[in-house]
Amino acid sequence: xxxxxxxxxxxxxxxxxxxxxxxxxxxxxxxxxxxxxxxxxxxxxxxxxxxxxxxxxxxxxxxxxxxxxxxxxxxxxxxxxxxxxxxxxxxxxxxxxxxxxxxxxxxxxxxxxxxxxxxx
Length: 120
Fold this sequence. Notes:
Elements: H1 4-22, E1 27-33, E2 38-44, E3 49-55, H2 59-62, H3 71-87, E4 93-96, H4 105-115
Helix pairs in contact: 3-4
């Protein structure tokens, strides 16, 4: 039986491969979720650089959310990421859920990013 970390890595790899095949040059919005926090970043895979990022551990977001492990924190991270991305000139991205199920905090982050102006 495979270890949980290996299985998660395999799921993330399958998701990333599918995302890159349909990206058509768009940037990738990658999400990381832990038991206590959530983070997201927009990555330019061609240049290997991060364009914008947001996390529930950011100083200005930490003051607005009570804890980083709920849907409200995920929504505020998604909104902050979208604002930073638009400020950097990015509108269209591909969503990389990183092996996580599109449910709960991941869905809340994606919905908030869409409402704030990102297209995916």
